[in-house]
Amino acid sequence: DARVTQTPRHKVTEMGQEVTMRCQPILGHNTVFWYRQTMMQGLELLAYFRNRAPLDDSGMPKDRFSAEMPDATLATLKIQPSEPRDSAVYFCASGTPTGGGPYEQYFGPGTRLTVT
Amino acid sequence: LAKTTQPISMDSYEGQEVNITCSHNNIATNDYITWYQQFPSQGPRFIIQGYKTKVTNEVASLFIPADRKSSTLSLPRVSLSDTAVYYCLVGGTGAGSYQLTFGKGTKLSVIP
Question: B79 φ, ψ to 5°?
Fold first, then answer.
């Protein structure tokens, strides 16, 4: 049963520290999404890649967040420096477009980040 | 982006059919309607997707009227394990760009 994996599952860090979250998409999926979920804002799209190229990162604070796909099996989301307001659950999802319709996205278990 | 409106919460007893309606008045011609389910401490899970009329799978049915300005997710004979947040999304890949936005969802509570 193919699944999206994310590491770490939990991260507690102090304000100002660098945080790196990793995602392994499902093999064969050419599109990877990064989301952030908080109680106040719900599920927000931060960025997404297709065939490893960034297509849209307009939902991401550019001054501190960066997302990359070094290869087809790894996507990373980095926050530097981290701030308490970054505390949230970060989800990675992968999928493949089906004709003109939207993606069926497969979500990972998420990384729960707490910045103190 | 098409905006969606769905109830914040719903309660249902076990064994009943649950219908969750989503309004999307400014849906575009190329937009699809997709529903996801999210359990606590898990990522959302795809349930069903449709463009018009009716779609049914082993989990749910999706009813879309002719004007496509709303849609209804139908869950037959819910059980306690169906307690979750359900998201209605409208959009598509259009000209190659991703056009799906998750709203706040509907929190379904199934009561024994």
Answer: -125, 175
